[in-house]
Amino acid sequence: MNFDTPIERRGTNSNKWDDMTPLYGVSADDGLAMWVADTDLPSPECIQDAVRKMLDHGVYGYTDIKADRDYRDAICWWMENRHGWSVDPNAIFTATGLGNGVGMVLDAFTKPGDGVVLFTPVYHSFARITKAAGRKVVECPLVTENGRHKMDFDGYDSILDGSEKLVIFCSPHNPGGTVWSIEEQQQLVAFCRKHDLLLVSDEIHHDLVYPGQKHVAMRLAAPDCQDILIMLTAPSKTFNIAGTHTGNVIIPDKTLRAKYQARSVALNLSTNSFGIAMTTAAYSPEGAAWVDELVPYLDRNRQTLEAGLASIPGVAPMTCGATYLSWVDFSGTGMTSKEIRERLLGQAKVVPNMGESFGAGGETFMRFNFGTQHARIEDAVQRIQAAFSDLQ
Ligand SMILES: Cc1ncc(COP(=O)(O)O)c(C=O)c1O
Q: How confident is the model over 230-258, as pLDDT tens digits?
C-alpha cells in the first residue's frame, strides 16, 4: 500500500480540513490539519471493494440475517486473531460509533446526577457526552512518569463521593498513547470493585500499537471482571472509516446485556448497511495484512514528529506507545497557552487539538495527529521549529 501519495481532502466535507478556517482561522490552502482523529490515508482495497460492490448494485435496502452473521463472525475473527480474545457473537451490539456507544452505556446503566469517573486528561467527548446526559464528571487526574501516564489509585479514593456508578477507561489512552499493563488494569478492576463501579473499557485504538508495546484487552487482563465489564471496540480508527459511525459495544455479562438490549430496543437502534459491509470487509486477513503495513508507517511518522518537537527547548512529547496522536507538553517554554496557540496557528499554520479540552492536566499540552503522509510530518516539524526558533 502506498501511503505517501497525498489525497486531496479539502472540499470533501472533511471535519479535519474543511472546519479549520471557521474554527481556527487557519486557511486550509496553506495550513496543516493535525487535530480531528482521522487519518489522511486511504482505507484498504478490501473495504473499498466492498463499498464499490454495494454502490454498483444501486439498491440499498435492509440487510439480511446472513449479512448480520458474517458481520458478527468477522468481529469475532478479528478479536480472536489479533487480540487473542474469544467473543461471544451474542454479546455484540452495534452503536452509531463509539461516542454513541458511550452515550448508550450511560443511558442504560446510570441515572441523571450519577457520577462518572474519567482519568484525565482524556478524550474530550467523554466529558461532553457525560455532561450532556446530565451525569456528573468526576475527574481523577493521571500522573506522568517517564513519559507515560499512570493512575494514582491512592489519591482517587478521596476524590470519589459515593455518587459514582461507572468508570470510562481509555485503553490505549488518548491522549498520551499510554498502553496499560496487565497489572494496571487489574488494579483498576480492584478500584471498581472497591467503589462498586461498572467498568467501560474503550479500546478503539487497540490495533495501532507500536513495537515494544503490548496491548491486552481488559477482558483478558482481568478475566474475573466480566460481571462489571463493558468493552467498546470499532474498526474506525484502525481502518480510517470513522465516517461510517459503526462501532461495537461488547457485553460479556448476560444481566448487563439484557439491560442494554432493553434500551437499544426502546431507542430503535439499528445498523447502517454500509457500516456493516465495511466492518465485515475490514476484519479479514486482507485487512490484517494492511494494518501490518500501516503501523510501521505511522511509527516512522511518530518518530519524526517526536524527535523534531523534542529538539525545541521546553517542548516535550510524551512517549506515544499507541494511537496516531502525540501529546506534547509546552510548559517548559514558559509561555502562556495563548502564546503557544498563536505561534502554532498564526505562525506555523499548524492546527493541533488544544490540550485544555481534554480536562485537568491538559492546559499546557497540544495534541498532534500524525496520521498523514510522511512528507507532511516533515513539513509540520519544520514549521513548528521555525515558529519557536527564538528558543534555540
Ligand atoms: C477513545 C475514543 N473513543 C471514542 C471515539 C469516537 O469514536 P466514534 O467516532 O466512533 O464516535 C474516539 C475518537 O477519537 C476516541 O479517541
A: 999 999 999 999 999 999 999 999 999 99
